[in-house]
Amino acid sequence: MRTKFFSSYLIYILIAIYGVTFSLITTRNLDLFNLHAKDMGQFDNIVWNTSQGRLFMSTITEFCWASWLGRHFSPIFLFIAPFYYIWNSAKMLLVIKSFSIALAALPLYWLARDKLKSTFLALSFSAAFLMAPKLHNANIFDFNVEALETPLIIFAFYYLTKRKFAIYGVFLTLLLFCKEDAFLYSLIFGVYAFLFQKERKTGLLSIGAGLLWGFLTIKMFIPYFRGDIELSYRFLERYSWLGNSFAGIIKTLLFHPFYVVENLLDPLRIRSLGALLLPLAFLPLFSLGGFILIIPVTLEMLLSSFRPQFAIVAHYPQVVIPFYFIASVFGAYNLIYGKSRIWGKLRKVRISRKAISLSLVLLLAGYTNCYFFGYAPRAKGTPYSPLSRGFKLRRYRMTPHIKTGHKFLKLISPDALTSAQCCMVPHLTHRRHIYLYRGNRATPLETVEYIFLDIYNECRPFFCGSYEEDVLNLLQEKKYGVLAYEDGWLILKKGHSSELNEKVFSKIIDHFFGVLEGESLYRTVGTNMEDLEAFNKMARFADSSKHETGHLIFGPYRNYPQGEYRVDYRLKTNDNKTLEVVAHIDVCANRGETVFAERDIRGIDFLKKREYQIFSLNFYNTDSNNGLEFRAFFTGKADLWVDRIIVNAPWLTAEEKYSVFN
User: How many CB atoms lie under 10 A from the CB of residue 191?
Assistant: First the structure.
């Protein structure tokens, strides 16, 4: 009795710890400009506009539909908008997200306690859920509506198993209101109720409700709000390799299974599946009912051609993980109470000892996976679990550069039409019109009053054309005057005096001309990853144990004026003892046919391992129209990082440097 009383309080303590911890992490990420126009900015803009009576409106997305419901049917935002009357801030969404995910541990605890008859094992399941590394990464990612689905899935299933069908119906309705593809979850619940609970009526009603909701939202509601009833459901394109319609996809799955399996045996898809099963000690596979629960959501992810979806990263784990934990509870039940021979000689061991053993395995598997895999080093920002080996508090320091950005935010009028770079957008979304700056050709500059940029920030996805060229042209055209410039932050105001434009132009051209970030150049091998020692916290990286040899960086194919140059490569390696060549750097033109300077770099050339060092090349450019490029070849003998390339040509004037971008 005392244990049950203690565990009932402990589950709420765990939920509170998780909710508070991740609320602090995510809101700090917002303060550090680590969140994005999509998805953080657009959802905050949608919810804020809805709270102001402009239902589901947002101008951030490039689709520019009259309503967000023309992209995804998510009336659930009607229930979220009132929270903005409590705290009118984008941070409210992040707090809601963190506590929403945390709350999912409660019905999971109830389900495991009732099914397994062990409060300790039930607590272990909830703790393992709150330690799930993919869930942590999804939580730290931008806000997405899938976070609201996470607890609703488990609440709905729990009340279905308890045969409290009225409460089940409430949670199922809220779940369907989250997103149009939630109809799949209604089908899953219906099949489970029909086959395993023998609740024919409830099962058929759930299946019927799911099919009807899917038809209404995808075939009628979304096309209506999009303004074109004839257009097909755009997210179906991710499954076009299976067919161009739902019927075509189902036909391929049924009649061409070997073709499907062949495509599913992709190494990344297999690793994604392993990352879901490993923290759960493969428990979902020990129950037929649990296995049937996870098949549909697993196929939804793995059959997609969209990499973040089939890799099950970003926000996508939030709707997959609940089903895997539900299935794990059923798998644990079979191991403890079933007649399986898996336990061998331990079949006579008392049930309480089996539960304790399974709890320890679950907690150990959960924590170990969180420690080693609870981070995503390829993403910008701080996508690290607090329990992972990669978590460091210094990632959350407020630097002078960030403080300047917050100071600049106060210079923009609250209601002015504003266009901003990706990571600044979430700080400017509480206005009717806010645009993601995507270049002069993609931003409606005829209506925009302010343009807010950070030229040092490489966080600018969805960009159209040349960022450098567009920014420099803005300063030269003088339709917008410089309102403020400091430490790379730039605010331009339409009709403002342009007397500072030339001065700021000279400063910016030096940066654009002289600095080439490693992660922004072309590559044949390697990946982009977070690196706190890099100037902008990102670097190009090649792993000697994983990546093949090839060019880690090359480009940018610009036409530099004739003359003498010095190029500095900022590199580091993990082995400064080897005599092997770890990198080959060169400066070339005409697609590599003309080499102006080159050098082999050995491990012993680095003074310290894992510490950046400058390696320079001097050369004379003989042709101003040859498409110059700077390359670093990865030999595979040791890990290699490239932070940035610095091009030095102090003899060039600002006008000559500007000519490089035209």
Answer: 17
Residue 38's φ and ψ, nearest 5 degrees, are -120, 115
State if pTM tops 0.90.
no
Cβ-contact 275, 286 below 8 angstroms: no
* 604 in Cβ contact with 579 (< 8 Å): yes
Residue appearing with tokens 């959960």 = 366
Q: What pLDDT is recorded for position 381? A: 41
Other CB atoms within a 10 A radius of the CB of residue 598 amount to 14
Amino acid in position 520 = S
pLDDT over 70 percentage in the chain: 91
Evaluated on CA atoms 93, 97, 103, 107, the torsion sign reads positive
Let me know: does 301 contact 312? Beta carbons within 8 Å: yes
Classify residue 4 by burial, with Cβ atoms within 10 Å: 0-12, 13-18, 19+: exposed
Query: What band does 347 get if pLDDT is binned at 50, 70 and 90?
Result: low
pLDDT of residue 236: 84
How many other C-beta atoms can be found within 10 angstroms of the C-beta atom of residue 614?
A: 10
pLDDT, tens digit, 9 for 90 and up, residues 13-37: 999 999 999 999 999 999 999 898 8
- Comparing C-alpha atoms, which of 42, 43, 40 is closest to residue 27? 40
Query: CA-CA distance, 97 to 119, in Å (whole number)?
Result: 27
Tell me which of 3.40.50.1970, 2.60.120.260, 1.10.110.30, 3.50.50.60 is the CATH number of domain 516-659. 2.60.120.260
Alpha-carbon distance of 450 to 496, in angstroms, equals: 10
CA 111 to CA 122: how far, in whole Å?
A: 8
| Distances 639 to 129, 298, 601, 605 between C-alpha atoms, Å | 34, 34, 13, 14
* Model pLDDT for residues 172-209, shown as the tens digit of each residue: 999 999 999 999 999 999 999 999 999 999 999 999 99
Do 141 and 134 meet the contact criterion of CB atoms below 8 Å apart?
A: no
For 50, residues 6+ apart whose C-beta sits below 8 A from its C-beta are: 56, 57, 77, 78, 80, 81
The two structure tokens encoding residue 66: 């009259």
Give pLDDT tens digits for 269-328: 888 888 888 888 899 999 898 999 999 999 999 999 888 888 777 788 889 999 999 999
pLDDT at 443: 66
Q: Report the SS3 class of residue 434.
A: strand
| Dist. CA 128–CA 105, nearest whole Å | 9
Residue 591 is predicted with a pLDDT of 87
Domain residue ranges of the chain, discontinuous segments joined by +: 96-231+266-373, 398-499, 516-659
At a CB cut-off of 8 Å and minimum separation 6, what does 2 contact? Answer: none
Token digits of residue 646: 């610095």
